[in-house]
Design brief:
Elements lengths: L10 H34 L7 H21 L4 H20 L3 H18 L3 H20 L22 E6 L12 H16 L3 E3 L2 E2 L5 H8 L26 H8 L4 E6 L13 E6 L5 H6 L3 H14 L2 H9 L15 H11 L4 E6 L35 H31 L7 E5 L21 H8 L3 E4 L6 E3 L3 E2 H13 L17 E2 L10 E2 L10 E2 L2
Parallel strand pairs: 1-6, 1-7, 2-9, 3-10, 4-5, 4-6
Antiparallel strand pairs: 2-8, 7-8, 11-12, 12-13
Helix pairs in contact: 1-2, 1-5, 2-10, 3-4, 6-13, 12-13
Amino acid sequence: MAKSNKSGEPASVISTRDKSRSLVLCCALFFTLLIYPVLGMVWHHSYPLLSPELGLIVIAAATISFFLSALILSTRSLVTNLVVTLFVTIGLMIQFNLFFEGLTIVFTMGLILGFLLKDRYIEFVLAVFVAMLMGSWLDSRLDPATKLAVLQPEEASSGRGPVIHVLMDGFMAPEGLPWQDESQKLRAEIMSFFKKYGFELHTRAYSHYSSTLNSMTRAFNFTNDDQALFRRAEALREDLAFRDNAWFEVLSDAGYPIHVYQSESVDFCHVATIDQIQCNVFPIPNLKTVNREIDDVRTRLEVLLRTLVSQSEILTKILRNARILDTWGVSIYDERLLPKLTADIQSRPGDAFFSHLLIPHSPFVFTEDCDINYRGESRTRWAYIVGNLASDSESQNRRYEKYIAQSHCAIKLLGQLFDTLITDNLFDKATIIIHGDHGSSAYNHSPHIANFDLLTQRDLLDAFSTLFAVKWPGGESEIIGDVESLNVLMAKMARKFAGHNTGEMINAVTSEPEPFIYLTGMEPLRQIFVNIYGGPDQGRESE
């Protein structure tokens, strides 16, 4: 006779029900683990949830979860908990970029809880991930263009014309562009554009650094502190902030309330010495454009998966080193940013406004007329790997065609801003600073010390050439062809702006004996004396 429990049910029925319950719980856990980063990404970027490509991702996640669960539940309870702990640890490592210490803690805690909770362990882990999923959903309900600190309407303005500072990421100096016909048309447009609007344009400006963080932390503090090179790979996202910002201090000391418009990539808002900065943050990448501009579901699915992979620094590094992950172009410029900036200037014309525009920075998906074109996006390999050629000359030319088109778009956007200010009688009394932070990054060899003997002048220009232009109230246009670093130009501009109220730091870097750059991977860090625009005595290292 079959055994039964107190309720009279046969033991075989109870066993089947327990197995079914365990299978459902295990499936739910793996499904939540797989879908958590996907939903977090699409919620954060307000991507349409009912799109076919997301449906395909859900089906794939459910299928993988079922087969994993069936395989794992065929083992004993403690072995099941061990395998679940391993998968959870790997998932958290990928999602949150955990390294050895973090992984050790997570895995050890998982083993302990698995031993103590036994059959209840899967339920516990599932509850934790469901709570994390709900937290991600609640966080996504916040307006991504959030104001972290609000300037009150009655707060005093400077009483003078606005200061408008626009960092156009990856915008090269006119003399840094290649000599192909289309590049020279862009060069001519840049020259005529800034002349038309009365700017002092520096045609041969350059950055000492090939990355935004290194370049801007030095330029905004008027210093060349080569012993404190900012290392993004070793910092958490919340540390990617300009805690010290001498230029913002100059603006604040002059009585200017400061507005900041930025992406999530770099934080200009949290300056240690300034309490009141109105901060507007826009998410990257601009995933909504993928659903809006791409008709093919398969392509949209591929773009979403590539974007998801790019959220993990660990996966990105692994796939890049394996030469698997090529760059896929998803717009990182948010079209809401400039209209918001323009409206705020109109409402508070005596304030200072800083905007970090991720254009013409790659990916190059904008046409000259600022339409987004994802068709024909060139997946050319960039020079991520030391010692390897990024691409052949043909693919580099295609990349530059796209960079030039996106640069034309960037100029068009600036023109719209300037014309609005002219219409509102604000342009003439405004101080406007427009500059880049590094070159186009379309180099064939990365600016790494291991590539020292491979780097060409074209590589150096693509890494370090950068735009710099200033318009002063009542000033006239001027073309300046001196080779000067962004650090020096920012220091000179700040000193002229502040007048007699210049501090010791502003005067620290107003000239440099000769041009120099820093290459990544240098231990210890040292200057490479080289004129990227051409000249004698190239590539000499400092002692």
